[in-house]
Amino acid sequence: MTAARRIFHILHAASLPACAAAICILSLAAAPLRAGDIPLNQRQSGYDTMGRDTRAMQDDDTANPATLWLLDGEALWSKKEGAAGKACADCHTDAATSMKGVAARYPAFNTKQNKPLDIEGRINNCRTEHQQAQPLPFENKDLLALTAYVARQSRGMAIAPPPENMQPVVDQGRAIFEKRQGQLNLSCAQCHDDNWGRKLAGSAIPQGHPNGYPLYRLEWQSVGSLQRRLRNCLIGMRAEGYALGSPEYVALEAFLMWRARGMKMESPAVRP
Predict the structure, then answer these.
(1) Could you tell me the pTM of the whole model?
(2) Judging by beta carbons within 10 Å of its beta carbon (0-12, 13-18, 19+), is residue 264 exposed, middle or buried?
(3) Fold for domain 65-152?
(4) pLDDT band, very low/low/confident/very high, at 199 (cuts 50, 70, 90)
(5) Mean of the pLDDT values across residues 94-120?
(6) Is 24 noted as a catalytic residue in this protein?
(7) Active-site pick, 24, 126, 188, 233
């Protein structure tokens, strides 16, 4: 059976995300597994490829639906939780000052737990260790609200290069990013490094930078985390995903932040 016929059968039986990924095979079949990293002067935020109306929605906080999550996050910041009866503000005071720049340098290595944590993991670590409260499930509205509120304090700041102790994690994330996966035998790099700017199912392929997360996605009609977006990509590749909060997703986040180093934070952004 020819490659084109195999793709036809995949398209016939696949879900919509898988169909889009299958279409991608036709243009990517001859692409190498690993191309060079995108030059720093050629990097583009997803904002740069959006339509005018979607940009306007992100630019105006009164029109950005993620503002509702920010307001919830602000309230949760001062809410006392757990057996300790503590609020985030009791330790960190004013988030506008204490959280400024934090999201631009996460994931970060937590020496006490001897593992890297992303922002969601750090918030849950504070809940269990300092507030003596239960951790919040990933994609829980409260966790998204707190994460968006913390990330908002870094808007406009440059993503920091990871420290030396994060290099093994970044390397692990790169390996996952460049690995062919799933029934469609695709890697993240084939779309987002090798073919960014080209059209896929009528839409421009983005470079896949994480500088807007958590963000409001029009497709979701909700705020979602970077891990949710990564999981959706794996589903589109018809690959087996990881559990939300897994070390693999954190490693991917770390690599993507390294890949976007120097770019400006936009959280919470809006995307199609």
Answers:
(1) 0.86
(2) middle
(3) Cytochrome Bc1 Complex; Chain D, domain 2 (1.10.760)
(4) confident
(5) 97
(6) no
(7) 233
